[in-house]
Structure formats: structure tokens, C-alpha cells
From TrEMBL:
Protein name according to UniProt: NADPH:quinone reductase
Gene Ontology MF: a single term: oxidoreductase activity
InterPro entries: ADH-like_N, ER, GroES-like_sf, NAD(P)-bd_dom_sf, Zinc-ADH_QOR/CCCR
Signal peptide: none
Amino acid sequence: MLAAGMREFGGPVELLDLPEPAGPGSAEVVIDVSAAGVGNWDDIVRSGGWDVGLTPPMALGVEVAGTVVAVGSNVTGFRPGDEVLGHPLPLRHQGCWAERVVVDAGLVVPKPPGVPWETAAAFPVPALTAEQALSESLRVAGNETLLVHGAGGATGGLAVRLAALRGARVIATAGSASADRVGRAGAVEVLDYRDRTWPERIREWTGGAGVDSALNAVPGGSADTVRAVREGGRLATITGDRRPAGSGVSFADVYVRPDSAQLTKLSALLGEGKLSLPVGVTLPLAEAAAALERAVRGANGGPVVLLTGRRPSNP
Ligand SMILES: NC(=O)c1ccc[n+]([C@@H]2O[C@H](COP(=O)([O-])OP(=O)(O)OC[C@H]3O[C@@H](n4cnc5c(N)ncnc54)[C@H](OP(=O)(O)O)[C@@H]3O)[C@@H](O)[C@H]2O)c1
């Protein structure tokens, strides 16, 4: 089967002809892949910096949307023909940039009807990251003020929406092209991050006190973000930034993990239209190398998605 990945850690992304998966194990399903998400995190996998459970030669890709074609003997939740999405780590047979994958049935959830394949494929990692940062690291409460730095991106935008849905007062930074979208997601104030005084302006906006908590989604952005947080407040970053020195603010470095209960709820919100994720570009599996380059450069306009050409028509 056709797949895209690398022959060795650090090697270039290329098309691979990999063996078809054997039948599923008792707790696994085989998925006919329609679309697979591409993020700059895939480049960390390519270079060997994130262990996703396989060694090369291997297909990359940690987000999948597709149709179940076979189920293991102990799987009760899915049948062939079911449409699913997921962040199925650790990878079992191959990564998701492939025509078919075998995954733990507990790590995929139903794809809501009406959600396009490309949206479903780009959704799991940013949605889970945003949810885990807000609910577990920052414990954002409904009556609090939250700053999202980098809300123009996929994860930041979903964090704005999820926090607004739980009643928080959300302030965000975004570029001019994304500001309206971030406002529609629920930010009451959107500041242009190109104005370097934005942390001070947020302090002024909060009467000098600073926000209760902040989520940083910009690589290297934690040092700026912490300047807008009140004494005793909370900062979480999803970028691997170091804890900013000398602040009286709690700090969390968030790494996404699969969680099917969370993903089920998030997918339901996506299906109901309470969450949205505009996809920036779709490319065929054969252009995986270009897709990854684009994601690494910064996916202005939305996430990058690979299509296998095997998808049933979009709803
Ligand atoms: N730790 C984890 O588990 C985890 C999970 C997911 C993502 N991440 C990381 O989180 C970061 C964001 O990921 P993503 O997929 O959400 O990103 P993305 O969709 O690629 O976001 C890119 C957007 O960030 C905005 N941006 C760029 N430079 C900025 C700056 N200096 N200040 C404010 N905004 C800026 C731009 O939006 P505008 O349109 O507003 O200019 C750009 O479109 C990446 O570094 C990614 O690797 C980590």
C-alpha cells in the first residue's frame, strides 16, 4: 500500500510501498484512511525527537479520519463502514499517512456526520491539546479571564472557543488576517501580536491586575505571555518553552495525549457546530514532503491535511 514517511530517523519524507496490514488484533480496527493531519510535530517524529511507537521505515502521521474496514474479535463499539477519527498513539502498524492503518479501537471515536474528512483529520491533536491545557493544566473556571497568545493558529483558536463555551472571558492575540475569526470564536478583545506592547495593553485592560491564566501557543512566546498574567496566576505553554524566570505565576508545559472520552465530547461539539476548524490546504499523499514543509513553515490559514484519494465523498 502507498504511504509517506521516512526510511530512517532524520531522512527525507518520501513515498513508501509498505505491506498491507494483517488482520486486526482482538482489540484493534483497520481503517481505510481518507485524510490525515500534518503538523510541525510530524517533523519532530521524522527526526527521532518524539517516540510514537515505531522505528523506520515507517509512515508518519498521528491524526486520522477514515472508514473502519475490519474489527477485532473483542471490539464491540465499531462495525465495518463506521466513519471515525482519532489520535491513535502509540502507533501500531504504521503512521496515518498511509492508505490503511491498524489502531487500538479505544483510540478512535465516531466522526460526526456532516463534518468534512479534512476537518476531521486535522482536529484531534489541536482539539485535545486545547482541552487538556484548559481543563487539566490551567483549570480555567467560568468566571475567570484567560489570555490565549497565538489564537490565529489551530490550537489557539480552538482554545478560545472552548474557554468561551465554559464562560471564561477570553482575550487573545492574533494577526490582522485572523482577528475577525478569533473574535467570532468568542474572544472579547483581540490584540495584534505585531504591536510589541500587547502584554502591557492587556494589563491595562484588566485594570492593571493581569489575567487569571494564559495559554501560550507561540514558540518562544511564554516570556511575553507571562507579563500579562496576574501575580499568583497560571501559565501553560504548548510549545516546550522554558518556565519564564522570576514570575510569581505557576507554569505548565503541556504535551498532548490520546483521550477518547475527551475526543468524543470534542467531536460532538464539532458535529454540533459549536467548534470549527478551517483547514488551510489539502494535498495528495504523494505530496507529503511539501505538506510537511508547509506545516513546519507555519500553517497560515489553517492546518495542512493529506488526502489518500480513498475517501467516500464529503458529506
Ligand atoms: N505540546 C503539544 O502537545 C502541542 C500540540 C499541538 C501544537 N503544539 C505546538 O503549538 C504551536 C501552535 O500549533 P498550531 O498547530 O496550533 O499552529 P498553527 O495552526 O500552525 O498556527 C500558526 C499560526 O500562529 C500564529 N502566529 C505565528 N507567529 C505568531 C506570533 N509571533 N504571535 C502570535 N501568533 C503567531 C499565526 O496566526 P495569525 O493568522 O494570527 O498570524 C499562524 O497562522 C506549534 O508550535 C505546535 O508545534 C504543541
